[in-house]
Amino acid sequence: MDALVLFRAYAAITTLLVVTYLAWPFELRQWPFLAVSLAALPAVVAALRRAPAGSRAPWWLMLAAMVLYNIGNLIWIWLATVGGRATGDGSVADVLFSVGGALLLAGALVLVRRRGRGDIGGVIDAVITAVALGGVLWDAVLLPAYLAQHLSPLREVAAFLDLLVLSGTLGAMLRISWLPAGRSASVRLFAAGIAITLAGKIVAPLAVDADGVRADWTNMWYLAAYAALGCAALHPSVATVVTVRQAPDDDLSRGRLSFLGAMLALTPLVGGGRAILGLPVDGELIALSSAALVPLVMVRIARLAAQRRAAEQALHRLATRDALTGLPNRAACLDLLATTLPVVVTASPTSPRTTRPSDGSPAVGASPATAASGDQLAVLFCDLDGFKPVNDRLGHAAGDELLVAVADRLRGCVREGDLVSRFGGDEFVLVCHGPGAVTAVSDRIAAMTTEPFVAGGEQVRIGVSVGAAGARAGDTVDDLVRRADLAMYEAKKSKSVGTLSLVLAA
Prior knowledge:
By secondary structure, the chain is an alpha+beta fold. It has helices spanning 3-19, 30-50, 57-83, 92-115, 120-149, 153-177, 185-206, 219-234, 254-276, 283-320, 330-340, 368-373, 387-394, 396-411, 437-449, 477-493; strands spanning 354-356, 377-385, 419-424, 427-433, 453-455, 458-460, 463-470, 500-504.
């Protein structure tokens, strides 16, 4: 049978049984009740068969919950039949209902964690709001009803915690099921089942008579919850319930922050107001409710702080890194020079302008000792020779591939503490420190050019023209970079592709 046809048939039959529940004779009402509750079992099994492998945890937990619920229902009906209408409540069946409820909530939380992991901030806000409203509901509505029934403190605490957990889970489910992007009917029906369950937990204690007997019409809420959860399991969208959807921007605006602050203060304010009016107040449980919200708020604040740090780091990377090669960009290079240059003390004499042959021998016009002594800080301005023909012939994608390959090799040419940056286009600037830096680094660049590069699936050869300038007393950043740039153009005049030419600036 088609999945949509099966879903519609199941929804129609279970809805009919729910709305006609009170029309059945009282002694026969256990049959429609069992029909709806037991029908949820094959529905969840069908969800397990259709859900993708690795995303079945919510449905396994729901199946275990439905098994315990139905065993509890059978015990409850048997006790009610044998011992009277009131006997079913407060029996061993309640233990099964509690465990089944915990499993159902665990399934909902697994669903929230997987589907809502792209919207953690929104989910936390929804949970804070729902728990705060649940605390108010307890203090203003349910507490007077439980006090009138003279429940034991243990059962009162259990009921209170059940309410808070259900409220928080419902808030999270509503958040992930009503986001504008990627709405899922199965998720909405799951949320509806949790909401109806919560509604049943609220109306049940309000419908207990003086003899402690709960009105039979309250069972319709639980029947409706079974029907909604079964529909969630049978809907064709069940296969996508754990798919992560695009979440809205997590913008904790002033209005949203004010609303969350109001939610935090709501429960204590209502409790304080009731105390002033002389109405019954459960101070311990109100304090527990407020304390439960504090970790959520702290997690929310911690996430916002982490997101802000990540955003600042991302902006810093964008501002200081070349997007293509990952090298520091022009701005980062100039900033480094502006920081380093004032503390550099140059001890070497000014070298005359010289040209270094492509075979790696010392530069013409300078002795090996002069070339080796170098400056404490030197800038090597590198321009690729033969890059434009490669880019024009093979295309921009191949040109980008070549630039990335050159950047990777240049990283291996410098020493620890040196900097390789992409100045723009096919220009790279290296900042080197220490005696002999220019000679050592230029030797490595010369060796780098002897091996071909791969770009666009072809082997290509390029050369590098390098202009080197050492820092001198009184230099500005512009002075140092300009001398290296001019030296690079001198080197380029006698350049052939596939070799290296080095000029030391005067």
